[in-house]
Structure formats: structure tokens, C-alpha cells
Amino acid sequence: MHDRFTRYLLLVPALVIVLGTTLWPLVSAVTTSFRNWRLKRSPVPQGWVGFDNYVFGFEEPEFWNALKVTVVFVTLDVLIAVAVSLGLALLLRRAGVLQSLTRAVLILPFAMSPALIGVSFRFMFNGEYGVLAKGIGWLIPPLADVIWLASPGYAMAALILSDVWHWFPYLTLIFLGGLAAVPVETEEAALIDGATPWQTVLLVVLPQIKGVIAVALILKTIFALKMFDSVQTLTGAGPGITTQTLAHYVYTIGFVHYDMGHASALAVVLTALLVGIGMFYTRLVMPPKAVAR
Amino acid sequence: MNARSPLASAAQSAVLLLFFGMIVFPIVWMVLTAFKLPRDVHSLSLNFSPTVKNFGIVFEAPWNIGLRIVNSVVVAFFTLAIAIPAAILSAYSFSRFEFAFKRGLFFLMLATQFIPAVVIILPFYLMFRDLGLLDSRTGLVIVNLAIVTPFAVWMLKGYFDAVPVECDEAALIDGASRMAIIWRVIVPMALPGVIVASVFCFILTWNEFIFALILTRDKAVTLQVGLVSFRTERGDLWELMAAAGVFITVPAFIAAVAIQKHFEAGLTGGAVK
Predict the structure, then answer these.
(1) Which of B31, B52, B109, B271 is the most buried (most CB within 10 A)?
(2) Contact B81, B141 (CB under 8 A)
(3) Chain B residues with CB-CB distance to A284 below 8 A
(4) ipTM of the complex
(5) Is residue A2 assigned to a domain?
(6) What is the rounded CA–CA span in Å between residue B36 and residue B40?
(7) Residue in B closest to A276 by C-alpha
(8) Number of domains in chain B
(9) 3-state secondary structure string, chain B?
(10) Residue A11 to residue B107, Cβ atoms within 8 A
(11) Which of B23, B75, B213 is the best residue to mutate to test the A interface, defined by the most A CB atoms within 10 Å of its own CB?
(12) In a domain, A187, yes or no
């Protein structure tokens, strides 16, 4: 039957695109990572240097700074975003005017561009006239005189806040989907048996969506690890390099210093990290049976 | 749940209202800023005389947002025009056929999504420099395919799986070719899914920033990168940034709201299974 070939032919266009636009660059980055290639000095690659770019890369204090910034950012960002969205999703289960109003706007932050979010939050966190800086200062007087984007800790807080704002409504949608599959009866039974509403949520509802929670945690972690756009437009990695994530560090080495070998080595390290977490995610989402339909 | 105290439900309403405010406030504030004169931008008062001048200024030199809009639209259009048909074909094959390395290939498609953009762009930057494709829309379309295509294959396979195989078989008996089945049976039946996947890919491409930041300088600058130019030696021109922001946001919001109903089912369907 001609279907024997059709099945492969149909795969060709997408496979060519995917191989050409993601795997080829990856292989090419690995190759470049073993060469000495500073674009400012030479338009063509220089000699092979073995693992020098990696060794040198790990010796740079900026690398460890970026790694530390990334770990701090990812940890806080993921935990806050997932906790907030889980709480909101639980509140949104019931029907009501406020519920449907809030549900209706959940998709908006997700559709907004990260670069624009960075710009908007930079405006709102401006020390002199930023509406968020002023609003927070009014609610919490000790923070009134903070120049947010000029102080390392507060700049990180602003970065996390902006990213949580971007993602928590989307994660809420994912959780709402998961919660919709939880039978109401389990909850009612727990309440009749005398469980408090808190106990019911913690011990009956949440365990039933732990798969969805795991997916949300890993998905958010991956996106947080890739964080670049709003670092560039909100804090510019500053003050100094105190909010420079790994992705932004690779960008700086590659496209500010134009050291292609060093940047490629860093890029390979970052990819290994992401693909590792990504594979874990894929296994979780896609148990072996799911693909073989 | 039943028998809640009025206090608890009042507290709940207050929390919901707070969430609603948190979500819409940054958007509202940006839109308000877009209607402000420069002298009102630094004031937090809502009592200002609105102007639409900013929406005109951004079209003038040196901002030329008209050109940026054209670039963003052209790049998004061609990216989707290539990625979606290619993804439809392979999603169909993944959905309907068994073949060697199927699981491995599908896994590979997904795994590419975890490669950070900054890695993809390094070799492409060098290649485009040699080919003279820096600062070109063609170059942007090529790299955007990297983020859009695997995602589209993954989403579309889920939607195609939901179309009963009997539909294919009935058409096969009637003598239809596989191509005819895909385009005249499967795509029409899974049309909401195809639209949702396309809208998602549109939002990804439209909002793409790092590729355009690195690859474009002048001619091919997109709306997203155009935002950066409002940071001048005179300081940040917030009211113009906000006006440009409105142009960035409106198409994405329209697209997102159009698929809102299918949205939850679409993404969680793929994620929870």
C-alpha cells in the first residue's frame, strides 16, 4: 500500500524545519564552543581550543553570578506563580459574577509581549513617578523611599513580580482545567464526614490534581530558565549585573562582547540544563503509552 | 460547598476583586499613558486632558512605527503560512500511522522546545551575516519557525487524535487520497483546534523579541524591538512607548479573546493527558 511511504513523506516538511532550525544550530553551537572565535578580531573561526571555553567559562565570576541569579529567580518566581495561581483557581471554581469577570481577563497577560511587560513595569517601578512604586510605598510605608530598579534586591523583586504577573493567570487556566476533572462528590463526602474546608482542599482536592501541579511547576521552571526578554527591557540585568540571568549572560557574551566560542560553550551548558529538565517534563506529560495511540 | 459565613464570602469577593484589579491594572495604566501629553505622564492623577496625538507621533520619523507594523505582520504571516501546513501534515502522520522511531521522533520534536532562543540565534547570526540576511524579514521568518513548528505539531496531533479514524476510513473507501483526507476531512473536522494552534503560534511569533533584537538593525525592526528605541538621550518617552504598546497589544488580545472558549480545553487537554 502506498501509505507505507506517505506516512514518512508527510513528516518531511516539519522535520526539515525542526532539524534545520533547532538541531543544526545546536550542533553548530557545540562545534563553535571548541573554537577560539572573537568576531571583533576575526570574521572567520580561529583555531580549535579543546575545552578552554568551558574551563574559562566556569572560571568567570560573572558565570557564577548569573547562575546564582537564575537559581534565585527561578525558585522564587516558580513557587510564587504556582502558589498564587493555584489559590486563584480554587477561588474561581464556583459560579458568580466576580468569578466570570476574573476568568474573562485571565488570558490577557499571557497574550501580552514579555518585552512590553518589561517596559511597562519599568515605567511603573520608576522611583520618582512609578505608580506601583508609589502604590506599594503608600500601602507599606517602610518601602516608600525605595528606588526599586536601583537596588539589587528590589530590582529582583520587580523582575519576579512582572514575570508572576505575566504567568499566573495562564497557570490559573491550566489549574482550572485540572480542577474541572475533580468529581464534586469527593469533596462533598469529605465535608459530610466533618472535614473543614481547608482540610478538604488540602487532603482531597489537591492530591487529585497533583499531576497538573507537577506539569505546571516544570513548565514554569522551563520558561523561567529561559527568561531573557523582560530582563533586557525591565532591569537591563542591573543594577550592575545583579539581575543577570544565564540567558542574558549568554546574550551579553555573544552579542555585546562578540566572543562566539565562549558564548557557544555557555549556550551548550544552558541547553543541557534545560533539556534535562525538559525530558523529565516530557516523561511526566507523556507516558510511553500516550504516543502509541 | 454550602453554608458559608457571610464574612467568609465577603472576604472571598474582596480577594477576587483584588486579583481582577491586579490583572487588568498594568494594561489599563499603559492604555491611559498612551493618551497622555508628556507633561501628564509623570503624574499619577487620573484628571488629565486626554490626547490622541501620541498615536500619530509614533508613525513619524524617527519612530516609523508603520514600517515596524508591516514587518511584524509580514514576519508573522509567513511564519504561520509555512509552519501551520507543515505541522498539519506531520501531526496527521503522528496521529494516524505507526512507524519506526515514532516515539523518538515525537520526543525529539518536543525536546527542541527546550533549547533556549539564545542558542538557536548564535549560529543563525553567523550564517545570516555570511548570506547577507541580517536585518531581513526572511531571516526572521526562518528563526521564528524554530519556536513555532514543534509547538504546532504537538498541539495539532492532540486535536487530530480526537477525530475518529472512521472518518478517514470512510473517505478511503470512497477513493480519496491521503492528501484529500487531510485537507477535506480532518482539517475541517478539527478546525477549532487548527485555529487555536494557529492563534497560539501567532501570539508566539508576534511577541518574539530576542531574535529580532539580535538580527535586525533598521529595515526589518519589528514592533517589539521598536519599543527599545523610545529610550532616548532625552530619557524614556513613556507616552510613545505606551502608544506603541497599544499597537502591539491589540492584535494579540483580539486573537486571544477569539479563542478563549477553546483555550482551556486546548492546552490542558494536551498537558493533562
Answers:
(1) B109
(2) no
(3) none
(4) 0.90
(5) no
(6) 6
(7) B114
(8) 1
(9) CCCCCHHHHHHHHHHHHHHHHHHHHHHHHHHHHHCCCHHHHCCCCCCCCCCCHHHHHCCCCCCCHHHHHHHHHHHHHHHHHHHHHHHHHHHHHHHHCCCCCHHHHHHHHHHHHHCCHHHHHHHHHHHHHHHCCCCCHHHHHHHHHHHHHHHHHHHHHHHHHCCCHHHHHHHHHCCCCHHHHHHHHHHHHCHHHHHHHHHHHHHHHHCCCHHHHHHCCCCCCCHHHHHHHHEECCEECHHHHHHHHHHHHHHHHHHHHHCHHHHHHHHHHHHHC
(10) no
(11) B23
(12) yes
CATH number of the domain enclosing B226:
1.10.3720.10
Give the per-residue pLDDT at A2.
61
The whole domain housing B169 covers: 60-272
Q: What is the pLDDT of residues A103-112, one digit of tens each?
A: 999 999 999 9
The whole-number pLDDT of residue A292 equals 43
Which residues in chain A have Cβ-Cβ distances shorter than 8 Å to B214?
251, 255
Of A15, A21, A111, the CB nearest to B253: A111
Q: Does B145 touch chain A (CB under 8 A)?
A: yes
**Does some domain include residue B45?**
no
CB-hemisphere CA count at 13 Å for B69?
17
In a domain, B69, yes or no: yes
A66 to chain B, minimum CA–CA distance in Å?
15
Q: How many CB pairs under 8 A join A and B?
A: 294
Contacts of A161 (CB under 8 A, 6+ apart): A121
> Would you say residue B85 lies in a domain?
yes
Residue at A73 is within a domain: yes
Contact B44 A114 (CB under 8 A): no
Say what the pLDDT of residue A291 is: 46
Q: Is residue B11 part of a domain?
A: no
The domain total for chain A is 1
Which of 18-47 (B) contact A at CB < 8 A?
Answer: 19-20, 22-24, 26-27, 29-30, 33, 41-44
- With respect to residue A149, please indicate whether it lies within any of the assigned structural domains: yes
Query: Is the CB of B112 less than 8 angstroms away from the CB of A178?
Result: no
User: What does the pLDDT look like over B65-115, one tens digit per residue?
Assistant: 999 999 999 999 999 999 999 999 999 999 999 888 888 888 888 888 888
Q: Which domain holds residue A276?
A: 20-291
B26:A229 CB<8 A: no
Closest CA of chain B from A269, distance in Å: 10
CATH number for the domain that contains residue A164: 1.10.3720.10
Show residues of chain B in contact with A195, CB under 8 Å. none
Q: Which pLDDT value is given to residue B262?
A: 73
